[in-house]
Amino acid sequence: MTVSPQLPLEIVMQLFKRMGPRVILVEDHGSLVGLVTVKDVLRFIAMEKPGYHHPSWDERGGLDGLLEELWSVIRGVVDRLGEKFAGLRSRR
């Protein structure tokens, strides 16, 4: 999966959540210019200004909401892997 460097971080996070990739490649005019992981996004959000309110964070400071969102991403990946392994077992 590739994205443009101009794509907002919120959309990149949604891609991780919905599609479950391990890495998203950043491409500019056909050239690879970088890559992004979920850990990169979480680190960036955590280092932002203290007053920043991420829409998925809760009102108590955000950690619970952030962890819930991350767990949701992990659960989605695990579910997809389980489906793939079940498909492999049924072919035998």
TrEMBL record:
<dbReference type="GO" id="GO:0000324">
    <property type="term" value="C:fungal-type vacuole"/>
</dbReference>
<keyword id="KW-0406">Ion transport</keyword>
<dbReference type="GO" id="GO:0006879">
    <property type="term" value="P:intracellular iron ion homeostasis"/>
</dbReference>
<dbReference type="GO" id="GO:0005794">
    <property type="term" value="C:Golgi apparatus"/>
</dbReference>
<dbReference type="GO" id="GO:0005247">
    <property type="term" value="F:voltage-gated chloride channel activity"/>
</dbReference>
<dbReference type="GO" id="GO:0005769">
    <property type="term" value="C:early endosome"/>
</dbReference>
<dbReference type="GO" id="GO:0005886">
    <property type="term" value="C:plasma membrane"/>
</dbReference>
<dbReference type="InterPro" id="IPR046342">
    <property type="entry name" value="CBS_dom_sf"/>
</dbReference>
<dbReference type="Pfam" id="PF00571">
    <property type="entry name" value="CBS"/>
</dbReference>
<dbReference type="GO" id="GO:0006878">
    <property type="term" value="P:intracellular copper ion homeostasis"/>
</dbReference>
<dbReference type="InterPro" id="IPR000644">
    <property type="entry name" value="CBS_dom"/>
</dbReference>
<protein>
    <recommendedName>
        <fullName>CBS domain-containing protein</fullName>
    </recommendedName>
</protein>
<keyword id="KW-0129">CBS domain</keyword>
<dbReference type="GO" id="GO:0005783">
    <property type="term" value="C:endoplasmic reticulum"/>
</dbReference>
<feature type="domain" description="CBS">
    <location>
        <begin position="1"/>
        <end position="56"/>
    </location>
</feature>
<keyword id="KW-0813">Transport</keyword>
